Amino acid sequence: MTERLCxxxxxxxxxxxxxxxxxxNQLVANLHRALRAHPVANIARISGYVTVEAKDGRAxxxxxxxxxxxxxxxxxxxxxxxxxxxxxxxxxAIAALGxxxxxxxxxxxxxxSSTTYPRHTIEMNQLVGTALxxxxxxxxxxxxxxxxxxxxxxxxxxxxxxxxxxxxxxxGLPVVNGGQGRHAPVERVRLAGGHVDxxxxxxxxxxxxxxxxxx
Length: 215
Fold this sequence. Notes:
- By secondary structure, the chain is α+β, with helices and mostly antiparallel strands.
- The chain contains five helices and ten strands.
- Helix content is 28%, strand content 25%.
- It has an eight-stranded mixed β-sheet.
């Protein structure tokens, strides 16, 4: 069964080495607070991301917008979560890319967190890229200034696919102690001047593969 969730991306937290888990846990705690008014079922850490699942399995743009305003979030994507069944995640990729509006080219970028998955990441790029080319006959796959990019990743027996329009988050590091941590003044400035643009023409997909462009 395919569900819609928010896939949270972060950057600076990933550079924290041995302290990384501390910052990730703080980000998860802050997301719980920021989403108290939304029907959230679960917030969890996976390999390099945080996932936010809705109670009805249908995460919304409003949830994504609330997440993007949390310090520590670099970007948030509305992603499809499916199994490792190829027809299922290919269908999700087609649906996701179809939400991007007008575009003339795209790129498939995949990442595989589980080495037990039988296909190589390059094979997965080719498989999904071929299906997208057939579904969008007037568009082309390219590695030179693609617009949008498609991303997919495989992790813990699930595939996450997204091709949503890019929205920038606040970035930086999570605020601690109710906003009184040592990073709080910086984050307040970023929040005051921050703007989330949900209408830009970049898009992304997440499921099992690498950054090789599809021929």
